[in-house]
Each structure stands twice: as structure tokens, then as C-alpha cells.
Specification:
Layout: E1 3-7, H1 13-23, E2 27-33, E3 36-43, E4 46-52, H2 59-65, H3 71-84, H4 88-94, H5 100-118, E5 125-129, E6 143-144, H6 145-165, E7 173-175, H7 186-196, H8 201-205, H9 212-224, E8 228-230, H10 244-256, H11 260-271, H12 277-299, E9 305-307, H13 320-331, H14 335-341, H15 346-358, E10 362-364, E11 375-376, E12 385-386
Antiparallel strand pairs: 1-5, 2-3, 2-5, 3-4, 4-6, 7-8, 9-10, 11-12
């Protein structure tokens, strides 16, 4: 494959990328729609570089969004990098503004989200060429194209479910205060306030600094908890499918025997068909039970987590959500805060954290009491003695 150019309406990303993956090509993929243009650099089955003209995807903004740099410091470093005529990322590492491992996290997060978003485009242009810009001074990525494609297809499935529930971008919402208090993150509370003020789905999706998928997940979580419901045509027959009572019965049985994750999944499937009051209640109960069962032990680890460097290239078993949580844990004050504010929901976040622990990317330090006798250096230079 030397050169390819076509329309995304005929060659969407889920068709184009497998063809590139099969040949392990080296070159540049340009994906463009309207004023937005993104470039992905491929080599040996990996994405090794990415760039975009979207302001929200500028590396400085991504570093701020991930709590790696504060906004004034990020802006100051950008101006200094421009004066030094160095790539922004390379300058940050060279001047020790950001550790290399943290910069790679941000660059990979930026590349993944841009790549996934292109899978939603059904219009625009796609072009592949053999030319690649020099990466000599840049911080190079090494993201498996196969893993990116797998996660992008999963995102497409997420969006399909989302659009089946929220059928139009002009959709507005009812807010149910009895379920909208007390247990939501600041981001979710802000969405509730906007929804109550009459904001449309399009306005809500565009309201956050986060990528749209994270806002969509928060809206879906609010809907499943029964805190919001889309306004629908009064003639719509929502939640009246014949198998709904049977599915609700299955969810109740799962709750009775303590299989809360199964109950959560079944209730969510019912709610894909429409707002069914009992399904909302089952979903809330299953989520609370699952969270209590899985998160208490994780909350006890606050202050004891050690972060191992992410291996390069990343293991294929790591998902985009696992990596998102890894970055969030590093940038957030406590495990409790990270899990409760994760866009994927507390239950899914706790599962991701268990996977990170199982893979050894998060390590638990022993309690101070288990470290044995501590040595203390005498201020006057005598030999250290054991504390008793």
C-alpha cells in the first residue's frame, strides 16, 4: 500500500484500519472532517506519533486536564519551548517540568482519544501516505494498532447503546430530585443542574472539558440511576417489550444470591429499552451492593499505592479504561476520589483497579507497622542505632 485516499462515508475507520494493520505499514494516516484534521504515524503495527489541530487536544491542555501540570505552568512552558525551538513534549522533559513516564501517559491518552473519536465520523476524508515527519526530537509513542482498533470498536458499541437511549441531539431531560442528591460527583451534579435548566443533549455533551465519551458515560450513569429521563413522544411505547418482566425477574434473582454485577448488567439491558422504574431501582441497589463489596478493601489502600512504570509497548490486555484510571489515580489525591469521579462509574473503575493490581502496575506498600525496626541517623554524626 503506497497511497490511499477516499471518503469516510465509503471507507470508515473500522474498515480502513484493519487493512493498514494487516500490512504493518509505515506512513501517515490523515483523517479530516470539516475544520478538524488529525494525523497518525504508523510503524510496524504501532502508532508512534499523533497530531491534531483541535485546541482541546493540544498537549498543554491534555496535561492540565489530567492534573499533570497546572494551567499557568503549562502555558509558561509552551512559550519557552517556542523560544527554544523544541517540540513541546521534549522541552517539558528536558527542563524537568514533567517526568518522561507521565508525559508518555498524556501523549498516549491524547492519541487514543483522538483515534477513537475518528471511528464515529461517517463523513470527511481519509488518506494514507508513505511520508512521515521526523521524530528525532519528539517523544515517540508505541501504541499497538491492534489494541487501539479493539478498544475503538468497543467505544462504537458504547455509542450505539447511548444513541438508542438518547435518540436525538435536541433531546431534553426531566430531573428526578429524589435520586439526584448525595451520591454524585461534581461533574455529574453539574450535568444535572444543566439538564434541569433545559440544556439539550448536544449542549450537555459539549459542556465538559473531558472527551465526549466521558460526558456520555456520566449521562448514561445518571439515567440508569433514575436521576434523569429523556423527554419522549407520548405515543412511544417505552419499556413495554414482552421479555422485560422476565429480565427483571432474572435481575432480582441475581440480587438475592449476591451476584450484583450480573444484576447490574441485566438491569442496564432493560434500561436500554426505556426508563422502567423497577429496573432503575434494581440498578441502584446492585451498584451500591457491588461498590460496598469491592471498594471498601480498595479504599483501605489509600496512601499505600506505588505506581510501577507502564511497560513499552503496553500489554495488549490493558484497555483504554484501565490506562485512564491509572492516570487518574496518579493525578488524584485519594483512591476514594479517583474511583468516585471516574467517568466509567465506580463499579467499573474498581474492576479496572483490580486488573492493574493483578498485572503488577500498582503495588501495595506494607503498613508502617510491618516494616520492622526503623533506623535513625543521629544529628551529630554518630552511627545510626535501631529504634526501640
Amino acid at each position: 500500500m503506497e497511497h490511499f485516499k477516499g471518503s469516510l462515508s465509503h471507507y470508515p475507520m473500522d474498515v480502513t484500519v484493519p487493512a493498514l494493520l494487516a500490512r504493518k505499514v509505515e506512513g501517515t494516516l490523515r483523517v479530516e472532517r470539516g475544520a478538524v484534521a488529525r494525523y497518525f504515524l504508523f510503524r510496524d503495527g504501532y502508532v508512534v506519533g499523533e497530531s491534531s489541530n483541535v485546541p482541546a487536544e493540544h498537549l498543554a491542555q491534555v496535561l492540565v486536564d489530567l492534573d499533570i501540570l497546572d494551567a499557568p505552568r503549562a502555558a509558561l512552558a509552551y512559550e519557552a519551548a517556542e523560544l527554544a525551538r523544541l517540540p513541546y513534549g521534549a522541552f517539558l522533559v528536558r527542563q524537568q517540568f514533567v517526568e518522561l513516564s507521565r508525559l508518555q501517559e498524556a501523549l498516549e491518552h491524547k492519541a487514543r482519544e483522538a483515534f477513537f473519536d475518528c471511528y464515529n465520523w461517517d463523513s470527511g476524508e481519509v488518506e494514507f501516505t508513505l511520508q512521515m515527519p521526523s521524530l528525532e526530537q519528539a517523544v515517540e509513542l508505541k501504541l499497538s494498532l491492534a489494541s487501539l482498533h479493539r478498544d475503538a470498536l468497543e467505544r462504537l458499541r458504547e455509542w450505539k447503546v447511548f444513541r438508542e437511549i438518547f435518540t436525538g441531539m435536541d433531546t431534553t431531560f426531566r430531573v428526578f430530585h429524589e435520586y439526584a442528591l448525595g451520591s454524585f460527583s461534581d461533574e455529574e451534579s453539574s450535568l444535572l443542574s444543566r439538564a434541569e435548566g433545559g440544556a439539550t443533549l448536544a449542549e450537555l455533551l459539549a459542556s465538559g472539558a473531558e472527551p465526549r465519551i466521558y460526558v456520555a458515560r456520566r449521562l448514561l450513569h445518571l439515567y440508569r440511576r433514575g436521576a434523569i429521563s429523556p423527554h419522549v413522544d407520548r405515543h412511544s411505547q417505552i419499556g413495554e417489550a414482552a421479555d422485560v418482566p422476565e429480565m427483571l425477574s432474572v435481575a432480582r434473582r441475581f440480587m438475592e444470591i449476591g451476584k450484583y454485577e450480573h444484576a447490574l448488567e441485566v438491569a442496564a439491558q432493560v434500561l436500554e429499552r426505556g426508563p422502567v422504574q423497577e429496573a432503575h431501582a434494581l440498578y441502584r441497589a446492585a451498584e451500591v451492593s457491588l461498590t460496598l463489596a469491592s471498594c471498601d478493601e480498595l479504599f483501605a489502600l489509600d496512601g499505600r499505592l506505588h505506581f510501577e512504570p507502564l511497560p513499552r509497548p503496553l500489554p495488549p490486555s490493558l484497555t483504554a479504561d484501565d490506562l485512564y484510571l491509572y492516570s487518574k489515580l496518579r493525578g488524584t489525591g485519594t483512591i476514594r476520589q479517583a474511583l468516585r469521579t471516574a467517568a466509567m462509574g465506580e463499579a467499573a473503575a474498581s474492576r479496572s483497579m483490580h486488573r492493574l493490581l493483578a498485572m503488577g502496575l500498582l503495588r501495595i506498600a506494607p503498613p508502617l507497622d510491618d516494616l520492622g525496626p526503623q533506623r535513625k541517623t543521629d544529628p551529630y554524626g554518630f552511627l545510626p542505632t535501631l529504634e526501640v
